[in-house]
Design goal:
This protein is of the alpha+beta class and 336 residues long. Helix content is 21%, strand content 30%. It has six helices and 19 strands. Helix 4 (165-178) packs across helix 6. The model has no long low-confidence stretch (mean pLDDT 96). Bound molecules: zinc ion. The site of zinc ion (ZN) has 5 residues, from loops. Zinc ion is lined by residues 58-59, 62, 145, 148.
């Protein structure tokens, strides 16, 4: 039997109306003996309908979700909602405050910390609260990621192949409703400990995204996030407003697949990366994706990294320097 979560919400999830508050997580430290981490949360509830749980900044250096959700929390009114919307714009709040992927407190990668522990590190305590308190409240779960400082993606919403085909169909219907420029059948290289897995194991309709990256948010990708969040809430029947006239129709999204681990290319050398293809460009198996130049001295040949599949470049390493083991490219296959 697990201990109760040490996190106390300052909002009442059963109350109608709009509430802005915090998940208060005790964190005793040098500069605050009885201090807490204060994770902002908004609950908007009215009438009867499903519950959506919306999160950004699961990784602290990914900004489209945080911008879209701080904006939604500030603008959504109870009379627009049938059901309940729970908004946590910055899920790993210490990492978000520091502008880093992982928490500066315990180096915890929240998206590798599930299901979490009530008696663990700060990051594990956040994961445990989502697993045991917030996910059970939700029907629909959307977690908005981007590439962070080290990856950049073509903008897509995504779901996973699941053993429960009814659940899988619900997830992909929500991905289609998001209507990002791309929609992905996503393969995870490291699914253990992910929030995605925790939500899917509880039978939730789960949508994730990758909407850009590089440790910033762009106007285009922020607009995709803002539009996509409302599109999915409309799809769930929680929002009844008309979609904006300038919204991208769901049919316009291009479906991509990640059929095997051959999609990923990992650096086997460290050095200076020379991109040979840009995001979204078509590639064929054997095409050169990138070269890595040794930087210790001149006169050495670069190593070459080639596509193993036909598709488009869906993700790439963002910084100019690369280390052995870094993911340098992801090729997504185009579904016809
Ligand atoms: Zn992420």
């Amino acid at each position: 039997m697990l201990a109760p979560s040490p996190i106390t919400p300052t909002v009442d999830f059963e109350r109608d109306g709009v509430q802005h508050g915090f998940l208060r997580l005790p964190y005793s430290r040098d500069d605050s003996a009885w201090g807490s981490v204060m994770i902002p949360i908004t609950v908007v509830r009215s009438g009867t309908g499903p519950t959506a749980l919306l999160t950004g900044a699961n990784h602290g250096d990914e900004y489209e979700g945080a911008v879209a959700l701080f904006d939604l929390a500030q603008t959504l009114t109870a009379d627009q909602v049938a059901g309940r919307v729970i908004i946590v714009p910055a899920m790993n709040y210490p990492a978000f405050q520091a502008g880093t992927r992982t928490s500066p407190i315990d180096k915890g990668n929240l998206n590798r910390s599930f299901p979490g522990r009530p008696d663990g590190t700060v990051t594990q305590k956040i994961a445990d609260y989502f697993t045991r308190e917030l996910l059970p409240l939700a029907d629909l779960v959307m977690d908005i990621h981007s590439g962070g400082k080290t990856l950049d993606f073509v903008p897509f919403a995504a779901a996973h192949i699941l053993p429960d085909k009814d659940q899988e169909a619900r997830c992909f219907a929500a991905v289609a409703a998001f209507a990002a420029p791309y929609s992905m059948r996503m393969l995870e290289i490291d699914a253990v400990g992910m929030y995605d897995t925790a939500a899917e194991e509880q039978g939730k309709t789960f949508v994730t995204t990758e909407l850009g990256g590089g440790g910033t948010g762009r106007a285009e990708t922020i607009a995709i996030a803002k539009r996509g969040v409302r599109n999915v809430l409309r799809h769930a029947g929680i929002l009844a407003d008309a979609p904006p006239a300038d919204g991208q129709p769901a049919e316009a999204s291009r479906w991509l697949d990640m059929p095997s681990a051959d999609c990923f290319r990992f650096a086997e050398d460290s050095g200076l990366i020379e991109a040979c293809v840009d995001l979204g460009q078509p590639v064929r198996a054997g095409d050169l994706l990138a070269r890595i130049h040794p930087i210790g001295r001149t006169g050495l040949a670069p190593s070459e990294y080639r596509a193993a599949l036909d598709g488009i470049l869906a993700a790439r390493h963002f910084p100019g320097l690369v280390k052995a083991g870094d993911c340098i490219a992801v090729v997504g296959t185009v579904e016809h």
